[in-house]
Amino acid sequence: MHDQPQTPCPGPCNNAWRRSEAQRDADGTEHHLTPAWGQPIQCDDCVERSRHHIEELPELLDAALLEALEGTPAKSVGTIGRMSVITWPGQASRLLVDRIVSEMAELQADILIHRGIWKPERLPERGTAPSEPDHIRRITRALLIHWDWAMQHHPAADEPHTAGNANPGGQASAWYRTLQVFTRRDNPRLQLAAPCPRCFLKTLSHSNGETFIACRNPECELLLSRAEYDQHAKEIADAVALGQAA
Ligand SMILES: [Zn+2]
Ligand SMILES: [Zn+2]
């Protein structure tokens, strides 16, 4: 039964556990945390959270592109010698969208080549202006189809979700967060009454239009469906009622 050792998930779900392990190695401080286990490499929560991030990308990229069309004002900087940095309207969003879409296309090519679907010499597809939204949706669809494989079998699936690593889950979260901040959608969030069932902090919240309820504790980042949250909130209310009756 235990011939295959379990692997702790390399995702943000285990940040607190990793810190506690490091502390124990450094000075012997014991801790009671157990890691989230990979299934077999990354845990189910991390797979679902990053899948959700991928699903949101087309809409977020559309919003960022709209900003490029409407244009952010060009600006000159510097006062001495009338130095100026050459910018054009919408430059910031254009550069951001180009970077993220080309990274998505690279990940798509990487996955399809590893899976033997594309020939090794095939290059990532480049989008062209008029069909850009289609291009983005095509890449997104391919990533979603192969997401379970990517999260468990991509050669970088066991790398930490930090900048500079190629873990598909880490890349998806980084694109999603960058676009959320750029399109100012990281707020507002509605805080929910029940504490998080995993980290026990009052950090559960959701945004308009999101079908997910997310823990905002960066060490936890648990995702719940509405039904799971309702069930959890009911269990807490029942426990409180039981405590009062006793
Ligand atoms: Zn995880
Ligand atoms: Zn939590």
Structure report:
- The protein is mostly helical and 246 residues long.
- It has two domains: 44-186, no CATH class; 187-241, no CATH class.
- 49% of the residues lie in helices and 5% in strands.
- The protein has helices at 15-27, 44-70, 91-114, 132-145, 147-153, 168-182, 226-245, and strands at 190-191, 204-206, 212-215, 223-225.
- A four-stranded antiparallel sheet has the order 1-2-3-4.
- Helix 2 (44-70) packs antiparallel against helix 4 (132-145) and helix 2 (44-70) packs parallel to helix 6.
- The longest helix is centred in the N-terminal third of the chain and has 27 residues, at 44-70.
- It is globular and about 65 Å long.
- The model is unreliable at 72-83 (pLDDT under 50).
- The structure holds zinc ion (2 copies).
- One zinc ion binds at residues 9, 11, 13, 36, 42-43, 45-46.
